[in-house]
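Dear Dr. V.,

Thank you for agreeing to look over these. As mentioned in my earlier message, I'm a first-year student in the group and I'm still getting used to reading structure tokens, so any feedback on how I've presented them would be very welcome. I ran two proteins. I've put each sequence directly above its structure. The first is here:
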Amino acid sequence: MSMKKRKQNWIPFLFLMPALAFLFFVYLYPLIRVFLDSFFTIRNGEKVFARLLNYRNIFLVDTKFRISLRNNAILLLGVPILVLFALICAFVIYERVRGWKAFRTLFFLPYVLAITVVSIVFSFLYRGDGIINSVLGKIGLGILQNDWIGNTKTAIFAVLFVIIWHDFGFGMMLFFARLMSLDKDLFEAAIVDGASWLQRFRYVTIPQLRSIIEFYTVICVITILAWSFNYIFSMTKGGPGNSTMIIELYIYNSAFMYNLPNYASGLSVILFLMVSILIILQTTMRMRAEKQ
């Protein structure tokens, strides 16, 4: 190969260098730095190598981490609810029910609202003297009145409801866009064969949306595990009594409130591995299903 041809082969990589450098310093370098920092600790104002001390304390000593892990697991229950609710709403809109355009707007509107604004509004709605309890009292259901985010038994589920209400619109539009690209003859043939609404949904819609459902499921898992901080911080700040403490918020508190940056790095590495493992498992299951 001539020298001139070798230089031409390197030209595309030269154009990619600025983008690769940006990705390295913005994404890869912080990830490597957090991983390395998790093996250190601060003693007498100096940074010293601590081996696996942070991880040992996290898994064997730290009860707050276990509480955070449990709360994250509870929030993950919202993933199938998000997927199913978004799928049903998308199919209802696709069926062109009366007022479907208005429903499409109403369903998607929460997603474009700022998470902080939504969380603050719901924190007022959930109060003991909020609108929800007032309505329950007026319709004769005062027995159901509750301080929704002030009760350790209901706070995490109240936050989960807000997450579902805010985020399902994105999934609905994903499914609706995919439905619009499908061959309508499939649905028309099902109608001619006498298939009911539920049968069309189960045997025609879901199989056609399989790849999009898998994609949205991954997005939901990432949202629940790595994007719930704004909801929790704006509504409860982890309370009452750590009943809504999640790993994200615990990382924030460890780094900036407890002044334990290396401990927070260890928690961050664990959260990163959790999300990565779940995504790898989901991808592996999808590839196996495609081969069958």
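The second protein is here, in the same arrangement:
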Amino acid sequence: MAEIKCQELTLKELTSGLYVFPGPTNIGVAAQKVSPELTEIYFIDAGEDAAFAQKLYQACQNCFGKICVKAIVCTHAHADHIGGAAWFKENTGCKIWATQAEKSCAETPQIQATSFYGAFPLPELDTPYFHAPQCFVDQVIEDGQKIKCGDFEFEFIPLPGHSYDMIGALAAGPDGKKVFYAGDGIFGRTMLNRFWTPFVVDVKSFKESLLRIAKIKADFFVPSHGDVYDEVDELSELNLISTICNERLIEEILVQPKTHEELLKAFADKSDMTLRLSQFMLIGSSIRSYLTYLYKEGRVRWFFEKNKMYWQTVGGTADKA
């Protein structure tokens, strides 16, 4: 893969006209020359904030010369993916594409932190990481929709689980090769080594999305967090193993009944985590998602005792007593 250093960013060419800017959140790029002087750009996600969006724009100018940003595909409306979209829309006039549920979040960004926290969030959570600038969406993307853009064609694959209505973008270039920009539908090995418990809102859908990704035919796979892969079967399996390990750890802890906060502490202790406010919120929210999934599967139950809500594994010690 060819690499081009563009100021502070490095652009990697995956195949003809399809690129990625690697970073904490990888940014996909589809670029096509429409004249000797002008290159049209489509971004997959826009980065975490306006400052990064400006760096991204300047880097593309350095790489391609005069550019016209046509559209930004928002895989989902978490702030590290959509935080730069408002700057692009205001300064370049580009269109913003997103699914219906993610459109709602992009246009009402308070939803993100409220969803994570489970209530009106603490002021310490009113940060760019959890609260992107409001951004209005121009085109609602439907599951499986295909859009032809000059030499490129995008096919949008539903990948709910990490977020409610997330999509991946399967981009076909002029040479016929395909790059799948997977959003947070799958996480790279490095990411999983650091964070074995990624955020999820719907465990069942996340697992189904991983199986869907494993069946996609592409030459390159680009998770939003992690390296680029030329095959994805083993990575999909590793993500599934992570999810199943988290399920089993929760069931193991809940052999003895515990409140949600007691479960969160035990889960963090056994996972060698040190919880700060953001981790407490994100891991705690994910554990609630796991509890909902396990409850629907008939693997855990809940009950109240002395005005406390307890969870326990079905067949655990309290059940046997």
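From my reading of the second output: The longest helix spans residues 233-253. The mean pLDDT is 93. Does that match how you would interpret it?

Kind regards,
E.
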